[in-house]
Amino acid sequence: MAKIISLFKTSAACSLAFLLGVGIQGDIQAAETPAVHTSLDISKAPDAADYGRKSQTLIEEWYPRINTALFGEGHPLPYDTIQIIFEPVLGIDGAAAYADGGIIHVSSKYIRIMPDDFRAMMIHELSHVNQNYPPSPSENAGWLVEGIADYVRHKYFEKDIQPTLRLDADGKMRGYTKAEPYFYALEHAGVSLQEQGYLKAYTVASTFLYWLESRKDKDIVRKLNLALSRGEYSDKLFETYCGATLDGLWKEFVEESKASRPNPVG
Description:
Pfam family, one: BSP
Number of strands: 5
Number of domains: 2
InterPro entries: Uncharacterised_BSP (IPR007541)
Oligomer: single chain
Structural class: alpha/beta
Radius of gyration: 18 Å
Low-confidence stretches: 1-5, 7-25
Organism: Undibacterium terreum
Shape: globular
Strand order of the largest sheet: 1-4-5-3-2
Keywords: Signal
Helix content: 40-55%
Protein name: Peptidase
């Protein structure tokens, strides 16, 4: 299986892009929790020991739970041991964290200043470990890979997922605060999501996935995940499972998001 590498960037726009995600709120439990082993390396960042211990506890609980959420009960874990490596600065420019196969690399410098709970970032990266996808025949599947990881984060861990965005008549985000950093960054950048906004990935894509799950097919995320895991993903699957093209579904989602935004007072 090919490696998935996901980055948490610290640059102004990109760092925020990895901090949120969306999907239906709920709990997941693995029927029989398999033994999970973690390996911690803080040799280059000994001051990250507390973060390391918390990461090990988090992974030992959530690695099998995420696997059940994405694949169903009985699906084997892709790796027997998850290694966590903390370093002050990562080798990939601007990265705060990234998953590479069964290894999660974390910048000990960044987690001290990040605006969110670092555990939520770890859930996003751990989801990539569970995904373990082979190369996709579609060159445009990156948005979906990241959307699914944020979907897991926000549906199951943070439990703050919503089925719509707050969009104005031009498809631009309105009314977000710094407590929602990715949305806030997109709003202040004046980004329009009117056409193919799902390509913004992360929280935007996971909100869309939650909307699809709520409105079209309650199993859509698992179905798309399985297709990705088999190297069989195609945008045509949206029409197969949800009755409309990907772009058609996005337009419907955008219109509902516009309609659901509260009217300004005064």
